[in-house]
Amino acid sequence: MTVATHSLPSLLRVLSDETRLRILRLAAQAELSVGEIARCLAMGQSRVSNHLKILREVGLVGERHEGSYTFCRLEVPRGAVGQLWDALAPALDSVEARDADQARLAVVLAERSDSRSFFDRIAGDWDVIGSDFKLGTGRLSAASCLVDRALTVADVGCGTGYLAAALGRRVGRLVCVDNSPAMLDHARANLAGASAQVEYRLGVIEELPIADQEVDAAFAHMVLHHLSDTRAGLAEMVRIVRPGGLVCCVDLLPHRECWMRAEMADTRLGLDPAVLEDDLLASGLVQVEHEILADRYLVDAPGGRRVELPLHLVRGRKPA
Q1: For domain 143-317, which architecture applies?
Q2: Burial 279-303 (b: 16+ CB within 10 A, else e)
Q3: Domain 3-113, CATH among 1.10.10.10, 3.90.950.20, 1.10.510.10, 3.30.1660.10
Q4: Within 168-221, where are the H helices?
Q5: Residue 92 and which of 4, 85, 152, 290 are 20 to 30 A apart at CA?
Q6: Spatial distance between the Cα atoms of 239 and 27, rounded to a whole number of angstroms
Q7: SS3 helix, strand, coil % of the chain, rounded to 5?
Q8: pTM for the predicted model, two decimal places
Q9: CA–CA separation, 63 vs 38, rounded Å?
């Protein structure tokens, strides 16, 4: 039987029960679990559940499920049920068990507030207890919501699309450039589900196949250490960015893994961020700064030794 089909006598019978009136009074003050309502009434949970079922049927109580818990709240529908509630509500404070119910409700709500004191107690350990995630990418996804989805962005030296995969979920148009046709083929496959309009262009960073001021931002992720002339690459990135646009590079800090020259085609064993800052300033960028990243590049050296190499980020803006 729905709310609309309840007759006036049946509604009056539902509201004539003192226990149900006590439940409604509690539910009007806070959303409570079935167990909490039972505690406030000093009554068995199964008995309370039966009363809640009747109240739900006439539309006066709504419920929310969370795991194995059911939470109930007052819901006042329109029509006869709502009119009856409006007439009865002011008189509920005269229910005989009102004071005892209210005292028990205060205890239940006070126990909830203990969660605040719990967090106060363990705040010093929360970086360990509450910050251990499987991937740790959730906060980055949240921060990336600040990115304007109408942006056009270039990923120069895109490789197989490691950075482009993240950019392609947030921007409107993405231009991927690499000097390897095979790398571009893999990037195309990896970015098949990207929401951005993605273009793939064969070319080198020193002579980018991108028009002057075509993009809003240019990224080079783990690219510059492969270049013999980093200034030429940076100058090209500056050229393709519109006024006010961003140039951003992530790369290795200086290291001593000499084997990477032959095994990884690395021209440089990392890059000094202070030197890159100077190069970006010399190219005309402003707001140039760098930061050392918490992330590490992991690679297997000959012989199976696992190497962790520190990373840094350098960025700047083209004057508007």
Answers
A1: 3-Layer(aba) Sandwich (3.40)
A2: bbeebebeebebeeeeeebebeeee
A3: 1.10.10.10
A4: 181-190
A5: 4
A6: 64
A7: 45, 25, 30
A8: 0.66
A9: 15
SS3 171: coil
Over the stretch 106-147, which tens digit does the pLDDT of each residue have? 998 888 776 667 777 767 777 766 767 777 778 778 888 888
| Residues pairing with 63 in the sheet | 72
Which amino acid, residue 198?
V
Nearest partner of 271 among 236, 301, 308, 228, judged by Cα: 228
Q: What is the pLDDT of residues 205-221, one digit of tens each?
A: 999 999 999 999 999 99
Q: State whether residue 110 is helix, strand or coil.
A: helix
DSSP assignment of 65-76 equals EETTEEEEEE--
pLDDT tens, residue by residue, 41-56: 999 999 999 999 999 9
